[in-house]
Design a protein that fits this description.
The chain is α/β, with parallel strands linked by helices. It is 17% helix and 26% strand. It is built from 7 helices and 28 strands. It is elongated, with a radius of gyration of 22 Å. The N terminus is likely disordered. InterPro entries: GMPPB_C (IPR056729), Mannose-1P_guanyltransferase (IPR050486), NTP_transferase_dom (IPR005835), Nucleotide-diphossugar_trans (IPR029044).
Length: 366
C-alpha cells in the first residue's frame, strides 16, 4: 500500500477578468497586480510553498500570456509550476476539471484548490489534516464574518460536516450562520475527475450542492484568522497595506514589515510622509511635502509635491499633480491627474485619462 504524500499538490484559479478591480485590471490580470511590492499571486505561491506544496497548476484565462513569462517553471520559489489556459470561460468547477490531466495524484489523494483573489492566513496544513482525519470527499475553509449577507452561507453540524449551501440571505431569518465559503478547498482527485468536462461549471452552485444531495461527505473547517477578498480596489489597497504592516502573513513581502515599503529605484523626498502600510513601487517618485497613507503607488508613477493621498491605488506610470487630494480613489495606468484636483469616495480614473489642473473638486456637501 502506498502512503499519501504529506502535502498534496494544488490548483490555483487565476482566470478571472477582475471586473470589479478595473481600471487596474485593464492591462494586468488581477493576480498579477502588485500587492506589497510583488504580484499578489506571489504571496499565494509563497504561502503554499511554506506549507510544503511543491507542484501547482495554474488555471489561467484572462491575459493568460502574462503568468508564465514572470514565474517560469516556479523554481525560483522552490515550486514546479504548470499552466493551463481556458479557451472559453469554464467557471470555477470547469476550470478545476480543465487542469485535471496535469495532476499527479491518484483517485483517493487530496488536491488543494485556491481562489486567486483571496488573501488569507489560513493554516493550510490544518485544512489538509482535517480532510484526511474526517475521511471527507471535499473539505472547505470556512470563515466567520460579521455581516454575511454578501456571501453564500455554509452551515455545519456539531462535527463540522456541511449540512447545506445557502445563497446570499435576503432577510434576518435566512441568516442561520455566520460561516461563509472562504475560497480554499481540498478535493479528493476522484471528485475532480467527476466534474463534467468542456462546459462551464460552478463549484458553488452546482458541484457542492450536487455532492451534498448525493450523500457525499463535505467537511468544513472554520479558520477565522486574517481573510480578505481582494475583488474591489478598496479591498486590494487594504490587503496590500495589511501585508506591509504585518497584519496579513506572507513570506514574500520584499522587506521588513512596517509603516511603509519603498522598493529599490524609487525616490521619496526627504520631507514626504508615508504611513499606514503605503507601498512605493520601483522607479516611482514622491515629491516634497507629499503625504501618502495606506496607499499603493505602482511602478514609475509620480506623486508631485504637496499631494495628499490616502487609501488609494495609483497605477503604473500615472502622475498625480501638485497639491491634488486623493481619498479612496483609483487612478489607472498612465493617467494624468493635474494639480489642485480633489478625488474622493471611490472615484476611478481610467487608464491614460488626462484631468486638467483644478478640473475636479469634491466636497461632502455637494
Amino acid at each position: 500500500m502506498t502512503t499519501a504524500p504529506s502535502t498534496p499538490e494544488a490548483i490555483l484559479l487565476v482566470g478571472g477578468k477582475g471586473t470589479r478591480l478595473r481600471p487596474m485590471t485593464v492591462n494586468t490580470p488581477k493576480p498579477m497586480v502588485p500587492a506589497a511590492g510583488v504580484p499578489f499571486l506571489t504571496h499565494q505561491l509563497a504561502r503554499a510553498r511554506a506549507a510544503g506544496v511543491e507542484h501547482i497548476v495554474l488555471a489561467t484565462s484572462y491575459l493568460a500570456e502574462v503568468f508564465e513569462p514572470y514565474f517560469g517553471d516556479g523554481s525560483s520559489l522552490g515550486l514546479h509550476l504548470e499552466y493551463v489556459t481556458e479557451e472559453e470561460p469554464l467557471g470555477t468547477g470547469g476550470a478545476i476539471r480543465n487542469v485535471a490531466a496535469r495532476l499527479r495524484s491518484g483517485p483517493d489523494d487530496p488536491v488543494l484548490i485556491f481562489n486567486g483573489d483571496i488573501l488569507t492566513g489560513l493554516d493550510i496544513g490544518a485544512l489538509v489534516d482535517t480532510h484526511r482525519s474526517t475521511g471527507a470527499d471535499v473539505s472547505l475553509h470556512l470563515t466567520r464574518v460579521t455581516d454575511p449577507r454578501a456571501y453564500g452561507l455554509v452551515p455545519t453540524d456539531a462535527t463540522g460536516r456541511v449540512t447545506a449551501f445557502l445563497e446570499k440571505p435576503q432577510t434576518a431569518e435566512q441568516i442561520v450562520t455566520d460561516q461563509i465559503n472562504a475560497g480554499a478547498y481540498v478535493f479528493n482527485r476522484s471528485v475532480i475527475d467527476a466534474i463534467p468536462a468542456d462546459r462551464s461549471v460552478s463549484v458553488e452552485r452546482e458541484t457542492f450542492p450536487g455532492l451534498l444531495a448525493a450523500g457525499a461527505h463535505l467537511q468544513g473547517m472554520v479558520d477565522s484568522t486574517y481573510w480578505l477578498d481582494l475583488g474591489t480596489p478598496q479591498a486590494f489597497v487594504r490587503g496590500s497595506a495589511d501585508l506591509v504592516l504585518g497584519r496579513a502573513p506572507s513570506p514574500a513581502v520584499p522587506g521588513r514589515c512596517g509603516d511603509r515599503l519603498v522598493l529599490d529605484s524609487a525616490f521619496v523626498a526627504r520631507d514626504a510622509k508615508l504611513t499606514g502600510g503605503t507601498v512605493i513601487g520601483p522607479r516611482a517618485r514622491v515629491g516634497a511635502g507629499a503625504r501618502i497613507d495606506g496607499s499603493t503607488v505602482l511602478a514609475g508613477a509620480v506623486v508631485e509635491e504637496g499631494a495628499q493621498v490616502s487609501d488609494s491605488l495609483i497605477g503604473a506610470r500615472a502622475r498625480i499633480g501638485a497639491r491634488t487630494v486623493l481619498q479612496g480613489a483609483v487612478v489607472g495606468d498612465g493617467a494624468l491627474v493635474g494639480p489642485d484636483n480633489e478625488l474622493r469616495d471611490g472615484v476611478r480614473v481610467w487608464c491614460g485619462a488626462d484631468i486638467p489642473a483644478g478640473a475636479l473638486r469634491f466636497s461632502s456637501d455637494q
